[in-house]
Amino acid sequence: MKSKYMIGIGIIVAFLVLAGVNFQKSLTPYVSIQEARAETRTVQVKGARVDGSAMYDPASKTFNFKIVDSEGVECQIVYDGVKPSNFDEAKEIVAKGRFKDDVFHAKELLVKCPSKYEAETVKGVKS
């Protein structure tokens, strides 16, 4: 009877270890653009969009644009997909991918727009 319990506990522990390892692999850290250039794994970079840099190429179905991070480093982003509908209103863009040939190739984009729930200014005072 004890051997059955030991086998059961061993299986449970093995599954927990496997789940922990897979969870760790699925995490994608935020890094600066400079750090992302040195990484070989998938990372996330964020920055403000550079006005006038957005261009969609229908032939290759890629969306190209630039961002600038908080350190002032500019980066060319290539996204295999269409331009997000709210891209032009975005305050900040988060791109998930990796660098190749000095261009960040994004697999996913997150567009952070100004919130419609932010407090409005009335006579110079926030409500």
Q: What is Rg? A: 21 Å
Low-confidence stretches: none
Distance between the termini: 68 Å
The CATH C-level class name of one domain: Mainly Beta
Backbone shape: elongated
Oligomeric composition of the shown chains: single chain
User: Which topology of one domain does CATH recognise?
Assistant: OB fold (Dihydrolipoamide Acetyltransferase, E2P)
- Let me know the average pLDDT: 84
Q: What proportion of the residues is helical, as a percent range?
A: 10-25%
Largest sheet: 5 strands, mixed, barrel
Question: Could you characterize what this model shows?
Answer:
The model has no long low-confidence stretch (mean pLDDT about 85). The strands form two sheets. A five-stranded mixed β-barrel has the order 1-3-4-6-5. The chain has a two-stranded antiparallel sheet with strand order 7-8. The protein is about 25% helix and about 35% strand. The protein is elongated and about 70 Å long. The chain has a domain of about 80 residues: Beta Barrel (OB fold (Dihydrolipoamide Acetyltransferase, E2P)), CATH 2.40.50.140. The protein has about 130 residues and is α+β, with helices and mostly antiparallel strands. A hairpin with a 2-residue loop joins β5 and β6. The protein starts with a helix and ends with a strand.
